[in-house]
TrEMBL record:
This is YbjN domain-containing protein. InterPro entries: Put_sensory_transdc_reg_YbjN. Pfam families: YbjN (PF10722). CDD domains: DR1245-like.
Length: 168
């Protein structure tokens, strides 16, 4: 990804220059690491996919410009039915306990499940290593815990039983 000859947002004097530099670095990393990112039109973000052993994961990598933060979201490919959301919430809470990087989230309004990891790079230069260490936990943990999510959603296991199976 080539930088334009002059982009005000990359000018060191621009209010959000560090955030835009981070976004440029994020794009370069995603390209070089083989993610095939698609730019999101209305914000500094990219969409991409990750094929895990257990699930095909939709991802979003976003830079919060003013805050100089990197956010990575790994989305489950389906929505949780309304009548299963309490059980799934328990499962995700059990999964979150003890995680060192990131957390699972459930939107009770629509049933969306995602894993989020983030990094604050304020007053620092965002690097490929930091991006890698933020993005891969999201997809790996979604991939790891997805079978348990399915066990709970389809009534095969209780949340506690599903966690025991996944974390063995």
């Amino acid at each position: 990804m080539e930088e334009p000859e002059y982009a005000p947002e990359l000018d060191p004097e621009h209010e959000q220059a560090a955030g835009w530099r981070g976004f440029s670095t994020l794009g370069l990393f995603l390209e070089e690491d083989g993610w095939y990112p698609q730019r999101v039109d209305d914000r500094p973000a990219y969409r991409m996919h990750y094929q895990g052993a257990n699930v095909d994961i939709r991802c979003l990598a976003q830079i919060k410009l003013e805050q100089e933060q990197l956010l990575i979201y790994a989305y489950a490919p389906m929505k949780v039915p309304e009548d299963k959301r309490q059980l799934v919430a328990e499962y995700l809470t059990r999964a979150n306990y003890g995680l060192h990087i990131g957390n699972f989230e459930l939107d009770f309004n629509d049933g969306e499940v995602r894993f989020k990891s983030s990094l604050d790079f304020e007053d620092e230069t965002l690097t490929f290593i930091w991006i890698r260490n933020t993005i891969y936990p999201s997809v790996h943990l979604m991939n790891r815990y997805f079978p348990g999510l399915m066990m709970v959603m389809y009534g095969e296991k209780t949340p506690a039983e599903a966690i025991t199976v996944i974390e063995q």
